[in-house]
Write a structure and sequence with these properties.
transmembrane; alpha+beta; Helix Hairpins; rod-shaped; Heat Shock Protein 90; ATP binding
C-alpha cells in the first residue's frame, strides 16, 4: 500500500494539507485572542454606559456588571477626561499592558504564542478604542487564565477540523488522481505487458485513448515505439530467413565454382591464343566468386567464438602476416615495413588478431596492386598507458567516398570492384570482441591509415 503511487499520494496529500492547516492555525489563534479581548472591551463599555445613565448604582449591581464583563476595572476616556467607571478588587498587580489600537499582525501572533506557552495566570491591562466612537479610549483589567483556556479549546477544535478536512481532501484527491492518472497508467502498463508477450502481433499495439495531455503523449510515443519494433522484428525475421537461404546457396555455389576452378587450370594450358588471353580473366572471376561465397558463409555463422586472450608477441605475428602477403605481391613493386618495439606483447586472441591484421594488410596490398604502381605498406605499434595501438598504412590511392560511408557495413563497404565488404565488417566485429575499436584514421590520394586499439585493464576505452 505505502510503496504504491496511490498510497504515497494519499499520505503526502494528508501531510501537505495538515501543514497548510498548521500555517493557518497560528494566525487563527492570534485572531481569536484579539476577538476575545475586544469582546471584553465591548462588554465593559456597555457596563460603563449603564453607569453613565445612573450615577448611583447599587454596589451589588456594579459587581454583577463587572462579573458579566469578566473584568476587574473599566476606565473610559471621554473629552480628554480619564474616568474610572467601574472597579473591583484585583487578585494581583497588573503584569502586562496590551494596546489593541495599533497592534500589527506579527505583534498579535507573537503575543498569542507567548500566552499559549505561559501557563501562569496574570492580570493584564487591555487598551482599545470604544465602539461607535463612544469615547477616546477604553481600558480594562482582566485575568489571562480564562482567555488561555478559551484559546486552547479553540485550537483543539481547529486542529480536529483540520484533520477532518485533510482526510476528506486527501481522499477526494486520491479518487480524482486514481481516475485521471493511476488507472490510465495501469492500462498503459497492461498494454506493455501484453505486447511483450507477442511483439510480432500488431493487434497488441496500444491505441491512445487518455484524456490527459501528458498521458496521451506517452501513449502516442509508446505506439510509435511498438510499431517500429514490430516492423523491425518482422524485417529481422525476413533477413534471418534470407541469410539462411543465402548461406545454403553460397555453400552449393562454392562447390560448383570449386569444380569450375579445377577445369580452368587445364584451360590455362591450352595453346589457343584466345583461350590464353581469356583464361586469366576467367580464373580471376571464378576465384573472386569462390572468395565471396566463403566470406558469406563465414559471416553467416551465428556468431564468432569469443576470443581466448593471451599475451601475444606482436612482432612475430606481424612477421607471419607480412611473409604471406609478400608472396602474394608477385612481380609488383610493393615493399613492407614494420616498426614494432622489441619485446612488445599485447593481450589478444592470436588467431583472431592475425585475421584482423592480415585483412587490413591484404586490402592495402590489393589497393596498391590495382594501381599498377610501386607502393609501400607500413605497420607500426605503440604501447600507451591505456591501450595498445597498431596502425596499418599504405601509399595507395585512398578509399572511394562510397566505401568510406559504409566502411564496416557488410556487403556495402567494399573498396574494390567486385569486393563484398565483408572483410572489414568481420575485422571490426573481432576487434569489438576484444573490447577494442577499429577506426579509419585517414584516407587520401597519398594513402590510407587504419588504427587498431586494444585496451588494457577492464577493456574500456
Amino acid at each position: 500500500m505505502f510503496n504504491s503511487l496511490s498510497g504515497r499520494l494519499l499520505i503526502l496529500t494528508t501531510i501537505f494539507v495538515m501543514i497548510a492547516e498548521v500555517l493557518i492555525f497560528v494566525p487563527s489563534i492570534a485572531r481569536f485572542r484579539e476577538d476575545y479581548m475586544l469582546n471584553r472591551l465591548e462588554r465593559a463599555q456597555i457596563a460603563s454606559l449603564a453607569l453613565l445613565a445612573d450615577d448611583m448604582l447599587d454596589p451589588a449591581l456594579e459587581e454583577e456588571l463587572l462579573k458579566n464583563a469578566q473584568v476587574f476595572n473599566v476606565v473610559l476616556r471621554r473629552d480628554e477626561a480619564r474616568q474610572l467607571m467601574l472597579s473591583s478588587d484585583m487578585p494581583q498587580a497588573i503584569g502586562q499592558t496590551f494596546d489593541l489600537r495599533d497592534a500589527s499582525a506579527l505583534t498579535l501572533i507573537r503575543d498569542a504564542l507567548a500566552r499559549m506557552i505561559d501557563t501562569e495566570n496574570e492580570v493584564i491591562r487591555v487598551i482599545g478604542a470604544p465602539v461607535r466612537e463612544a469615547g477616546l479610549l477604553i481600558e480594562i483589567t482582566m485575568e489571562t487564565a480564562p482567555m488561555r483556556m478559551a484559546m486552547i479549546d479553540y485550537g483543539i477544535r481547529i486542529l480536529i477540523l483540520s484533520a477532518v478536512i485533510s482526510v476528506v481532501t486527501a481522499f477526494l484527491l486520491f479518487l480524482a488522481m486514481r481516475a485521471l492518472l493511476l488507472k490510465p497508467i495501469a492500462r498503459v502498463v497492461g498494454h506493455m505487458r501484453r505486447y511483450a508477450q507477442s511483439p510480432e502481433d500488431a493487434r497488441r499495439i496500444i491505441e491512445p485513448s487518455a484524456s490527459v495531455t501528458e498521458l496521451r503523449e506517452a501513449e502516442v510515443a509508446l505506439r510509435t515505439l511498438q510499431t517500429d519494433l514490430t516492423q523491425a522484428l518482422k524485417q529481422k525475421e525476413r533477413l534471418a530467413q534470407l541469410g539462411s537461404a543465402v548461406s545454403k546457396i553460397s555453400h552449393d555455389l562454392r562447390n560448383i565454382l570449386t569444380s569450375a576452378q579445377l577445369f580452368t587450370d587445364r584451360i590455362e594450358m591450352s595453346e589457343d591464343p584466345i583461350v590464353k588471353r581469356m583464361a586469366p580473366k576467367l580464373v580471376g572471376s571464378i576465384t573472386r566468386a569462390v572468395h565471396l561465397c566463403e566470406s558469406t558463409l563465414a559471416f553467416g555463422k551465428a556468431e564468432e567464438p569469443g576470443p581466448t586472450l593471451t599475451m601475444v608477441p606482436l612482432a612475430e605475428l606481424i612477421e607471419d602476416v607480412v611473409e604471406g602477403e609478400r608472396l602474394a605481391t608477385g612481380n609488383h613493386a610493393i615493399s613492407f615495413g614494420a616498426d614494432i618495439p622489441v619485446g612488445l606483447t599485447v593481450r589478444a586472441d592470436p588467431e583472431q588478431l592475425y585475421r584482423v591484421i592480415s585483412n587490413l594488410v591484404r586490402n592495402a596490398r590489393q589497393a596498391l596492386m590495382g594501381t599498377g604502381k610501386a607502393g609501400e605498406i607500413g605497420i607500426s605499434a605503440q604501447d600507451t598507458e591505456a591501450a595498445w595501438l597498431i596502425e596499418i598504412s599504405d601509399t595507395g590511392p585512398g578509399l572511394p567516398a562510397k566505401a568510406q560511408e559504409h566502411l564496416f557495413t557488410p556487403f556495402q563497404g567494399g573498396a574494390r570492384k567486385g569486393g563484398s565488404g565483408l572483410g572489414l565488417a568481420i575485422a571490426a566485429e573481432l576487434v569489438r570482441g576484444h573490447g577494442g575499436q577499429l577506426a579509419l584514421i585517414k584516407t587520401e590520394e597519398t594513402g590510407t591509415t587504419f588504427r587498431l586499439t586494444l585496451p588494457k585493464g577492464d577493456g574500456t576505452l
